[in-house]
Design a protein that fits this description.
4-stranded antiparallel β-sheet; 11 helices
Length: 267
């Protein structure tokens, strides 16, 4: 439990303050949640840092400050519709007014609202280390090696201007965390399929993406299901949401549907 609270005045100060027994406090939807995954002795508030806020167009991408809330993103005219749609997966407007894009990525949860969409569009991420150096990575690299970047401050997310993405979310209710979120995206001429599967896997599915992209004609649901069955990272478990077989089938037919839509420009 935190027993110290510090308000950082700048991104550089916040990054310098971060150590193994501290955590950044953004919107607070995770830290203040019962059963939170965050356990820190010191909370570093970054809510007053103006440089972490705002949306801007920068050459070939849209830059979204890490402190932008889900509702900020939904209401901003420069943000691509596919990212607004992902933010609206969070059904509570009260939570959307609090939760930040940087916080959602930093948590890297397997039921993330946004990560599948960000992976599918090949989003970039800007980090700041304790020495004050800004580092640019892709969200894929960040999520795959979060331990390396855990002490760094997320400054912004970069959304490619040419990206087209379609996402689908499955949950028991609009207020529930997702059982499965799937995204298909085109950016830089490449097809990317990403999944956030609760308690199972968060990441891209490169083998499936390559197989679908390289096929002479659209693959059938059965062919995609065979590819899904061959992915070792998709080790679904039997639980209240269904059997492993059902979840793999649901993922396969969703991939087929989303790929057809993204290729047809329906994002």
């Amino acid at each position: 439990m935190a027993d110290k609270f510090v308000i950082a005045a700048s991104a550089a100060e916040a990054a310098a303050l971060r150590d193994g027994d501290s955590a950044f406090l953004a919107g607070g939807t995770e830290i203040n949640r019962l059963g939170s995954s965050v356990d820190a002795g010191t909370l570093i508030s970054i809510g007053r840092i103006a440089e972490l806020d705002g949306v801007s167009i920068q050459e070939d991408c849209v830059r979204i400050g890490a402190m932008c809330t889900f509702q900020d993103i939904v209401e901003n005219k420069d943000v691509p519709q596919f990212l607004k749609d992902a933010c609206l997966f969070m059904g509570s407007r009260t939570k959307r007014n609090m939760a930040t894009i940087g916080g959602n990525v930093a948590l890297g949860r397997t039921d993330s609202y946004l990560c599948a969409t960000l992976l599918a569009c090949h989003a970039g991420i800007i980090l700041r280390d304790a020495e004050g150096t800004s580092i640019r990575r892709c969200v894929k690299g960040y999520l795959e090696d979060r331990a390396q970047y855990s002490d760094m401050l997320i400054e912004a997310l970069l959304i490619p201007g040419d990206a087209v993405v379609v996402s689908k979310r499955y949950s028991n209710t609009v207020q529930s965390h997702a059982v499965l979120t799937v995204s298909a995206g085109l950016s830089g001429g490449l097809l990317r399929i990403a999944v956030a599967a609760r308690d199972t896997y968060l990441g891209l599915l490169p083998e499936i993406s390559t197989a679908i992209a390289g096929a002479e004609k659209p693959l059938s649901d059965e062919a995609i299901l065979k590819l899904v069955n061959g992915c070792p990272q998709l080790a679904f478990r039997q639980d209240m949401f269904g059997s492993p077989e059902y979840k793999r089938y649901l993922l396969a037919v969703t991939i087929a549907d989303l790929v057809a839509k993204v290729r047809g420009g329906e994002a």
